[in-house]
Amino acid sequence: MTIKYRIIIVASSVIFSTFISCNKKTSTSLKKEDQIPVKEAIDSISIESIINHEVNEVDMLQSGIKEKEALREFEVLYYELLKFKDTENFAKYGFAIGGPYSEWMKKAENLDKKYDPKILVERGIFISELKLLGIYYVGSKGKETSETEFYNKSFLDGLSTNRKAEEKISN
């Protein structure tokens, strides 16, 4: 059974049971002619609206999961860059093909291709800027510049927003 049909079945049963419980609660206070018959109430519910509502909720959940995945992958790559940017090998080879850090750049490029470029924008993070930060560090041999400071502040602010949200959820 596909997820679409499972959603329809669950949504229909929830709406039906909600309607029945509401109708029972109000039946003592409503006159018989004011009560809505169950069949008429169910017929008035558009199955298409139920599907669209449920599919939108599923899309929102999937979007949230993708955002978390993108954020985690971004965070790992970001901290890896901060860890190796000061090394002699990085100053010598940068992201040269075959060098010790060429794989990092490939991962950053894949991350940029894997996710919608705007997925982390609400956090002030553009995934493609991670590659730029790496390139700025190549040019400065791992030293801080006004450009690297700008991107680091932006990334740290975005990542700290995530930590604050997680702390609120866990408390």
List the topology elements.
Layout: H1 3-27, H2 38-44, H3 47-84, H4 88-93, H5 102-114, H6 128-139, H7 146-170
End-to-end separation in angstroms reads: 38 Å
- The parts where pLDDT drops under 50 for at least 5 residues are 16-27
Number of helices: 7
Classify the secondary structure makeup into a structural class: mainly alpha
What is the element string, with H for helices and E for strands? HHHHHHH
How would you state the average pLDDT, rounded?
76
Q: Tally the beta strands.
A: 0
Overall 3D form: globular
Rg, please? 26 Å
Q: What portion of residues belong to β-strands? A: under 5%
Biggest sheet, in brief?
none
Proportion of helical residues: over 70%
List descriptors.
single chain, 171 residues, mainly alpha, 74% helix
Structure, explained:
The structure is a single chain. This protein is mostly helical. The protein contains 7 helices and no strands. The chain has helices spanning 3-27, 38-44, 47-84, 88-93, 102-114, 128-139, 146-170. The two termini are 38 Å apart.
Short structural description:
With 171 residues, this protein is mainly α. The chain contains 7 helices and no strands. α1 (3-27) packs across α3 (47-84), α3 runs antiparallel to α5 (102-114) and α6 (128-139) packs across α7.
